[in-house]
Amino acid sequence: MKEININEWARKEQYHFFKDFMDPIMGATSNIECTQLFLSSKEKNESFFIHYMHKALMAINKISEFKLRIVNDKVVQYPVINGTTTVFKENKTFAFCYFQYHENFKDFYQETEKALLIAKNSKQLEDKPIMDLIHVSVIPWRSFTCIKHPRTEGNTDSIPKIVFGKVFKNANNYYMPVSVEAHHALVDGYHVCDFFNQFEKLMTKP
C-alpha cells in the first residue's frame, strides 16, 4: 500500500471537510440490470453470487477511490481490493467468508467456492482486522430500496460496504438491487455511480 500525501491530494479540501463528521458515511442504492449474467450462470448451474462478486471486485479495483482507507489518521491506497461476505448458515445465523480477488475468473471461482463452504460449516464468526477488502452482505430473500449498516464507534470506518438483494424481473429483464456505502472523505456520489455503471456493464459479459 502507499500513503497519500494529503497536502498535494486533489481531495484535500473534501477530505478535511468530511473526515470529522459524526456520521461521514454516504450511500446509494440502484437496481442493476443483470439479465445476461443471471441467465447464463443458471444455465451453467454455477453460482450466480460468485459470478457477480467477481464482476463487483473487478469494478472496484478499477476505481482508485474505492481502494483508499483511513489507517492511523493517514490515507493509504491498497494495490488490490479483495472480498469478504456474510454466509447464511442452516441455523439462520451467519459467518464471515474471506476470499482473494483474482482477475482470472476460473481461479477466483474455485477459491471462492471453497472459502464459502468452509465459512458455512464454521462455528466461529472470525472477523479479521484487515483493510484491503470490501464488506459484502447478501439479502436474497427480498428486494430493497435502501439499507443501513451498523458502524463501529468513531468516524474512521473507511471500508466500503456493499449489499446485494434479491433478483427480480421487470418486463423481459432481470434486475438486482445493490446498495453501496462509503466514507465521504474518500468517496463521492460520482464514484459510487461510476461503480454502478461499470458493474452493470460487466454484468453483460458472462
Overview of this protein structure:
There is one protein chain. This protein is of the alpha+beta class and 206 residues long. The chain has one domain (2-202): 2-Layer Sandwich (Chloramphenicol Acetyltransferase). Helix content is 29%, strand content 28%. The strands form two sheets. Strands 2, 5, 6, 7, 8, 9 and 10 form a seven-stranded mixed sheet that branches. The chain has a three-stranded antiparallel sheet with strand order 1-4-3, with no helix packed on it. Strand 5 and strand 6 form a beta hairpin. Helix 3 (48-60) crosses helix 5. The relative contact order is 0.25. The mean pLDDT is 94. This is CatA-like O-acetyltransferase. It holds the Pfam family CAT. InterPro entries: CAT-like_dom_sf, Cmp_AcTrfase. It comes from Paralabilibaculum antarcticum.
Here the CATH topology equals: Chloramphenicol Acetyltransferase
Q: Based on the structure given, which CATH architecture is correct?
A: 2-Layer Sandwich
Task: Give the strand content.
Answer: 25-35%
Mean pLDDT across residues: 94
Distance between the termini: 31 Å
Helix content: 25-40%
**What is the makeup of the main sheet?**
7 strands, mixed
Shape: globular
Order of helices and strands: EHEHHEEEEHEEEEH
Overall radius of gyration: 17 Å
Overall tally of domains? 1
Structural class: alpha+beta
Helix count, per DSSP? 5
CATH superfamily grouping = Chloramphenicol acetyltransferase-like domain
Give start-end ranges of low-pLDDT stretches.
none
CATH class: Alpha Beta
Number of strands: 10
